[in-house]
């Protein structure tokens, strides 16, 4: 196994570079946020993101090297997110990584962004395979059984919006700033989660699939009713709507997690069950608590990486690169950037995944 890996991540709106060792030390993890660049547009603008990545990737990599006090010559492997994501950003990262690999004659490995999230608990908590992973972010929501660095079985996931996307849209509906997740969570703290009876979709289905777009529509209706009655939202309305929304998401995730844990136990009856979470939404305290309770019911160990490693970062890409390289995976200078890249290629495509097939 190579000892030092440089990881590069640029698939959404964070430009990130990190140096990680084979014995699980993060020597540096640098993240340049683009929040300010996108804040007037109500979401990430792909073209602006791609330009910003291209402009600062080299600075970001240099900063990661400086902070880790490692020379480029000492790096044994370069790992880069090769998808899924906004193609301009992914391309910027892949070209940067290829440039360094070609100039220095270093091995290169293209990593699936979701594999980065899914393998993070092995970096932070050294957990053993197999484990159940719930990935909940702004673009993704799925249950995976992870049995190896490149071996994922998808049990189910969202059929429409990702929960992070729903949090972001909720924030916009309520007039809160973006990114919405932390804002809705903060507003919810003083709110009454029982004031609005929002739907819990797909609970009648015995599988692990989820849907969050109807929840957002119900929330809009509740908001519109209040606005029609009183001309606007008070702080208390904002708080109650946020809390009711958050409670619905947490409950759906917890109930589906119990089902996924049952499927995990059926598939691996002799393994001690482990539930690991990753992705930006796993930063939410109410959701973390609900998931921990679901794990406890199944006597499963619950692993939630620190918040800084739950959201997008390059340390997870470096670690996934190290593990996958050790497992025999290789890339070369023909490595392509992929907007879509399902982790489990055998799983049925999801509804809403478009003509080109499943995004992830
Ligand atoms: O994993 P991530 O950094 O990026 C990808 O989507 O890959 O996740 C970002 C998402 C955003 O939608 C953000 O609103 C959401 O995670 N998020 C949260 C919280 N912090 C971030 N959602 C709910 N509660 C939070 N505290
Ligand atoms: Zn992510």
Task: Summarize the entry for a quick read.
44% of the residues lie in helices and 18% in strands.
Keywords for this structure?
five-stranded mixed beta sheet; single chain; Nucleotidyltransferase, domain 5; 360 residues; disordered C terminus; alpha/beta; binds zinc ion; binds 5'-O-[(R)-(carboxyoxy)(hydroxy)phosphoryl]adenosine
Number of helices, where a helix is a run of at least 4 consecutive DSSP H or I residues: 11
| Shape verdict | globular
Helix-strand topology string: EEEHHEHEHEEEHHHHEHEHH
Write the CATH architecture name of the largest domain.
2-Layer Sandwich
Proportion in helices: 40-55%
> Structural class of the secondary structure composition?
alpha/beta
Which strand order does the major sheet show?
Answer: 3-2-1-4-5
Ligand list: 5'-O-[(R)-(carboxyoxy)(hydroxy)phosphoryl]adenosine, zinc ion
Mean pLDDT: 92
**Rounded Rg:** 20 Å
Number of beta strands: 10
| CATH domain topology of the largest domain | Nucleotidyltransferase, domain 5
Distance between the termini: 28 Å
